Amino acid sequence: MIFIPSSTATQYLAGNQYLSTIDVQAVSADSMTQVQNDITSLLLSRHNISNPTSADFSIINQADILATASSVTSTFTLLLGAVAGISLIVGGIGIMNMMLTTVTERTREIGLRKAIGAQEKDITLQFLMESIALTIIGGSIGIALGWGICFSLTTLGIIATTVSPISVILAFGVSAVIGITFGYYPARRAAKMILSRPCVTNK
User: Fold this and answer.
1) Residue 189 class from Cβ within 10 Å (0-12 exposed, 13-18 middle, 19+ buried)?
2) Which of 6, 70, 78, 109 is buried most deeply by CB count within 10 Å?
3) Helical packing angle, 62-105 and 120-156, nearest 10°
């Protein structure tokens, strides 16, 4: 540990000719407000300032820093939530388009199932389950990638991260909801499909 004069530190380390920052530790959290008021009064007196609104200094405590950090965190949370919502909508539309294409390509299969007695609810359930399976598989891949990234960040010492079971359950739930929401229309379209029947005439 090396001790140097405060004037030398401000000149060579901070590049200023005066003290720019002073850290003060209170004896307890309850006395923090009183300590802040006392420091404010002392600095106003030392700087010969009678009006507190004209003070040439600012005092912040840990509560202010925590409030600022919480505000920034909330903003980032909303931003990430918006990006995730847009990604889910885009992914859902992609799944719906893919299922519509699948319905068109599998017309013979649908006709065969109806010919052997399958009802509309059976066709709907089949394509709806396929849509849910696609989203569940995609959600599983996303969870695996997220867990791998978190593990890598923790192992490399960049930041400490944890994967909570609630987030995993939420990811599977959202995947299932997306599959049901965007897969229902293609499934109903497949069930309502009217297939033409060949006309056989006797000569």
Assistant:
1) middle
2) 109
3) 140
